UniProtKB/TrEMBL annotation:
Its EC number is 4.2.1.51, 5.4.99.5. It comes from Chitinimonas lacunae. GO terms for molecular function: prephenate dehydratase activity. Catalyzes the Claisen rearrangement of chorismate to prephenate and the decarboxylation/dehydration of prephenate to phenylpyruvate. The keyword Ribosomal protein does not apply. The keyword Signal does not apply. Gene3D superfamilies: 3.30.70.260, Chorismate mutase, Periplasmic binding protein-like II. InterPro entries: ACT-like_dom_sf, ACT_dom, Chor_mutase/pphenate_deHydtase, Chorismate_II_sf, CM_dom_sf, CM_II_prokaryot, G/b/e-P-prot_chorismate_mutase, Preph_deHydtase. Residues 276-353 form the ACT domain. It is found in: Cytoplasm. Residues 1-88 form the Chorismate mutase domain. Residues 88-264 form the Prephenate dehydratase domain. It catalyses: prephenate + H(+) = 3-phenylpyruvate + CO2 + H2O; chorismate = prephenate. This is Bifunctional chorismate mutase/prephenate dehydratase.
Length: 357
């Protein structure tokens, strides 16, 4: 490669960077003006952000991938929004958990993330208005529902206003160079379960598996004791300076966790939304079938169905149902009315844009 050719490309990049900088700041000025129009009220608009991301993906001429472009715009919007007011996002800590990674994926790096000791506490700080939104795991593709989040949503005054889908990669981490002499492996119970087969194949049976409150806590414990290892992700490995002895050890290669974003504000319709509901059925044969019949009647698709024991009676259940569309749209609205006519209890947990990234 000739030096002059290289230099000419670098000169072109320098000139383009000046243009990008000007345009970014022009964009930020508009966002700031919008903030003023909002008068210090609701600043974050999930439906608008989803539309901006979907639009740039659709318009993207390449060679950058649609995903790269969406990620860049996520950060641009995060920085623009922080000019209005930085958002505080509560999550199940400590720092380095997948919940924190999900919060950053959804709100970008300009948001302030607030680690909490439990999912309960993360809900409570938002309910008490000490943080703006909570990002909580709701289901994993290998392990199924996160019961605590579902239970909390039933009684919480917060509404779901977004979802985040995160690919989960687990690594075996240690404060040491190889696998010799590991006595104990720490991780969150869900992660131990997600790596169960790998652990059976690669570690002696006598190695103790100890479940702790989070993967980041597991990494912290492993960083203190060289006889111990942890199963956790990249963020925790970096945060506690651990060596990755084995990468991507999850049994299911498409291991993915879905998180929900909840706050006091509702999301308006974006054009591509989901509505999450919880309802109860009477305890008699065919009750669930009858309960769900309005969905078929109105041609509304269900993207999730999950049952949980209700806290009110033995062998009574509540059902968590996600449907396509926004509850403000006519058809979805009519379906919800029809469900209310059949179910003992229906609560709309929230309506929100389908995850774009
Ligand atoms: C600028 C706005 O406020 C925020 C920032 C956005 C952006 O940078 O594009 C989009 C939605 C809001 O979260 C807006 O409401 O349009």
């Amino acid at each position: 490669m000739s030096d002059s050719l290289l230099q000419s490309h670098r000169d072109a990049i320098d000139a383009i960077d000046v243009e990008i900088l000007t345009l970014l700041n022009r964009r930020a000025e508009h966002a700031r003006k919008i903030g003023e129009l909002k008068g210090g009220g609701l600043v974050y608009r999930p439906e608008r952000e989803a539309q901006v991301m979907a639009r740039v993906k659709a318009l993207n001429p390449g060679p950058l991938s649609d995903e790269s472009v969406a990620k860049l715009f996520r950060e641009i919007m995060s920085a623009c929004l922080s000019l209005e007011r930085p958002l505080t996002i509560a999550y199940l800590g400590p720092e380095g958990t997948f919940s924190q990674a999900a919060a950053v994926k959804h709100f970008g790096h300009a948001a302030v993330t607030l680690p909490c000791a439990s999912i309960d506490e993360a809900f409570r700080v938002v309910e008490a208005r000490s943080a703006d939104y909570v990002v909580a795991p709701v289901e994993n593709s290998t392990e199924g529902a996160v019961g605590r989040t579902l239970d909390l949503m039933v009684g919480s005054p917060l509404s779901v206003c977004g979802e985040v889908v995160l690919r989960i990669h687990h690594h075996l981490l240690r404060n040491g160079a190889d696998m010799a002499g590991i006595r104990r492996v720490y991780s969150h119970a869900q992660s131990l379960a997600q790596c169960h087969e790998w652990l059976n194949r690669h570690l002696p049976a006598e190695v103790e598996r100890v479940s702790v409150a989070s993967n980041a806590e597991a990494a912290r414990l492993a960083s203190l004791d060289p006889q111990c290892a942890a199963i956790a992700g990249d963020a925790a490995a970096e945060r506690f300076g651990l060596v990755k002895l084995a990468e991507n050890i999850e049994d299911e290669p498409n291991n993915t966790t879905r998180f929900l974003v909840l706050g006091y504000h509702k999301s308006a319709a974006s054009g591509r939304d989901k509505t999450s509901l919880v309802m109860s059925a009477q305890n008699k044969p065919g009750a669930v079938h009858t309960l769900l019949s309005p969905l078929a009647e109105f041609g509304v698709s269900m993207t999730k169905f999950e049952s949980r024991p209700s806290r009110t009676g033995l062998w009574e259940y509540v059902f968590f149902v996600d449907i396509e569309g926004h509850c403000d749209e006519a058809t979805v609205n009519r379906v919800i009315d029809a469900l209310r006519a059949k179910a003992a209890f229906v609560k709309v947990l929230g309506a929100y844009p389908v995850a774009v990234l």
